Amino acid sequence: MRNLRVLIAVTILLSIPNATFGQKSDVFEELEDSFNYGKKANEYANSALSYIKECYRQTSIDDLHYYARKAKNEIEYAKSQSGYAESDASDAEDEADDINCDDAEDEADDAEGNFYTAKSRFDDAYTYLRRVEYEDKKDDIEYNLRRAISYIDEGIKYLGYALADLNDAVDELNDCK
């Protein structure tokens, strides 16, 4: 996150024609906002995984349900942050289109798609964690936890792709004249 901010600040300072400056800075701002939401989504997703690990350490079903609920809440936050990141990536795409920076536009579009997929995977994980909350059979609980972990891991993978796309969009924006 800090590296993207530094890159954006340097780029804005070195930005050539002042007429394009405002428009380019709009793209940078949207990319930075998207990046920050994506990083926050990643933090929430990893927090959810930590709570799921706690589920496996519990001996009582009530305690297990408690940690599953906490994981479900964290993954809900990850999902919403991914949605905000997706929206800002879409806005960056539109702003890049406005200044005819096609490569930055394409990268922002890729980021938008990857954030959408991450959000979808987190939604799937949420469904499985919700099932754990109301399940009393240990085997069914473990199955649902494994499925939730799998979807969270996939979501995190797509977040990584999206964040890389955003960094690529910054690079492409730097190359736009």
Major β-sheet annotation:
none
CATH topology: Four Helix Bundle (Hemerythrin (Met), subunit A)
State the separation between the terminal residues, measured CA to CA.
Answer: 25 Å
Low-confidence stretches: 9-21
Mean pLDDT: 89
Got a strand count?
A: 0
What's the CATH architecture name?
A: Up-down Bundle
Q: How many helical stretches? A: 5
**General shape:** elongated
What is the count of structural domains? 1
Order of helices and strands: HHHHH
CATH hierarchy class name: Mainly Alpha
SSE topology:
Layout: H1 2-14, H2 18-57, H3 61-98, H4 102-133, H5 138-175
TL;DR?
The chain has 5 helices and no strands. By secondary structure, the chain is an all-alpha fold. The protein is elongated.
Write structural notes for this entry:
The protein has one domain (2-10, 24-175): Up-down Bundle (Four Helix Bundle (Hemerythrin (Met), subunit A)). Helix content is 91%, strand content 0%. The protein is built from five helices and no strands. The chain is an all-alpha fold and 177 residues long. It has helices at 2-14, 18-57, 61-98, 102-133, 138-175. Helix 4 packs antiparallel against helix 5 (138-175). The longest helix is centred in the first third of the chain and has 40 residues, at 18-57.
